Amino acid sequence: MRILVTGSSGHLGEALVRTLQGTTHEVVGLDRKPSPFTRCVGTITDRDFLRRSMHGVDAVLHGATLHKPHVATHDRRDFVDTNVLGTLNLLEEAASGGVSAFIFTSTTSAFGRALMPPPGAPAVWVTEDVRPVPRNIYGVSKVAAEDLCELFHRLHGLACLVLRTSRFFPEPDDDPTVRAAYDDGNVKANEYLHRRVDLQDVVDAHVLALQKAPSIGFGRYIISATTPFLPEDLADLRVRAPRVVERRVPEYLEEYARRGWRMFPGIERVYVNERARRELGWRPSYDFSRIIDCLRTGEPSRSPLARAVGSKGYHDREFTGGPHPAALTPEP
């Protein structure tokens, strides 16, 4: 099978190409930036370039996108052009070319304000049934692209699966208050409880989605590490997270104390991956318990693939005071 991977010079794209190159598939990497993992250099907004690049393609893994950190450096039209019109171009070429599977990499950021419980409410138990309420142009553009995927399945029978991935980037947190309050490793370990996933597990989900798409037709899936929490934890989790984590993963206490790390005082949402595990047969390897085991034994807490890909960053220049533009601050 000939597989097109868009965004192949980026973090996930490189990981997908690295993985698929070791199989019987032919992989065509596409990105606007040259790299050892990119065969076709150009943009998905260029329809003629895209048509040439997709000649003979059997399946598409579409990861090319403008990300949340680009909100401060790009205007809204850039997001529409790349994330919406670029996806539309790919879908139209895929439908006309008889592509058997189209996998769209979306984001849990699409849920937006639906992730923010009102004061006094429990943490949000986030499944695919939660209705997105985008909070910025990034979320709007990703939801619009998801809806295009659903439309092309309905109108053209194109098998499309949407994977809403949680955080898998190795870069520091974009919130300066979080960076100031916690060690970076502490933040990422905490996030495996509710909103982080290892790059290898994300790649595994995409490969499974390729296999399952023709039989499923269309579906949306949350791709995040398996949480130890249960719905009955949500009220306490919002205001007394350390107590809940101690109850569910008691072994964390000793290792955190040894390192001088802290649990977040409260956790406001939990991503639930049950549908992906059930329908895709996905079995993520990295969760909070495994991270604690790695910390205790001195083993790397990131997969070999994640370490090989490393950090990509989001911008081509440095910013004063941190890895992200000063304008990139959490929205209310």
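[next item in queue]
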Amino acid sequence: MNLKLDKQTCWLVGGVLALLLVSSFIGWLLSRRVTSDQARVTVHNLNARIRAWWMMVAVFGLAMATGGIGSIVLFALTSFLALREFITLTPTRLGDHRTLFWVFFIILPLQYYLIAIKWYGLFAILIPVYAFLFIPIRSAMAGDCENFLERTAKIQWALMICVYCVSYVPALLSLDIPGYAGQNGKLMFYFVLVAQISDVLQYVWGKTLGRHKIAPSVSPNKTWEGFIGGIASATLIGAGLWWATPFTPLQSAGMALAITLMGFFGGIVMSAIKRDRGVKDYGNLIEGHGGVMDRIDSLCFAAPIFFHLTRFFFT
């Protein structure tokens, strides 16, 4: 389950580092040349995002270098922080506190433990079946019936999105793919890279050519030009990375398209939740990106789909 330093891995890591170096240089160059106040704000935001990407790539690389357990711990921590942000936006009552204790400190670590021991049968149903039933039971036992259905649904939704869906990323390491033994770290790298670069390219295409907004009341910055340009570009990149996966070039393009589309829909849905709660970001932990949930919204929707497509067709 380790990320082996073979030739393919070196190309993947080197490509990401080269992209960050080029982006940093372009950001520095733009900061020296812009003159208008609006342009300065845009470039400042761009450079903040680039600095944050350096940090996130370093953390992700360190986790993968430590092997499967490092990746599982990283995504467990990511789930914990995202869950905390999500619950903070959804007002709770005293009757929810013991339920939330179970969610944060029992169900969440148990989900990732099941992934660590590769117990797919239970990991796949722990949250959508057993936790789904347990949460309303525990909340009802507290005796607080005010807005009970709304409060319970919010906790269930938070657990599904922030823990269950995110946990499918390190679960990729547990797949037994014929002819691909010991290389699952590259598959996880591929998934995260395609999902995140799609977000970046949609942002770039939208900033440069964006004119027609997709859902202005939900996500004002998302445009059809950014969507089409970002999805197409990221799909081509995913197809070009087929050599690091168990897929053929055409299969890799199809998988990348599925990742990018679901990632886009994830961003739209999570933006709708933010608008409902009247906030711009889920948090401010990551400079230029907002909170953890703002950065992984695309992973949440794409990870289960990518995992099951891979498991169904390639194992």
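[queue empty]
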